[in-house]
Amino acid sequence: MPGPSLEALTLEVTETEGAVDSAIVFMGGLAQMLRDAAGDPAAINALAARLEAKQQAIAAAIVANDPNIPPA
Q1: 72 neighbors 63 (Cβ within 8 angstroms)
Q2: Is 44 within 8 Å of 37 (Cβ atoms)?
Q3: Rounded to 5 degrees, what angle do the CA atoms 62, 66, 71 make?
Q4: pLDDT of 5
Q5: pLDDT at site 1
Q6: Alpha carbon of 39 to those of 25, 35, 50, 51: distances in Å?
Q7: Would the N or C end of the chain have less CB density within 10 A of its end CB?
Q8: How buried is residue 66: exposed, middle or buried, by Cβ count under 10 Å (0-12/13-18/19+)?
Q9: Closest Cα to residue 30, out of 52, 47, 46?
Q10: pLDDT tens, 6-15?
Q11: Minimal CA–CA distance to 23: which of 57, 67, 46?
Q12: Structural domain boundaries of the chain?
């Protein structure tokens, strides 16, 4: 049974690169966002909730796409 085409794999790599680049930009700005919101507990809590949601999504994606990690 043949695997994905080189074109499909190239597209997957390109999409992954875009996601990684976006994550790098986000993480680079996260420290400043926290500094900017330091006087606003509601803003800090909102940022923490956003970050936790993304961490959970990343963890789930890693588990779902790594055959060496057993599902929970």
Answers
A1: yes
A2: yes
A3: 80
A4: 87
A5: 63
A6: 24, 8, 18, 19
A7: N
A8: exposed
A9: 47
A10: 888 888 888 8
A11: 57
A12: 6-65
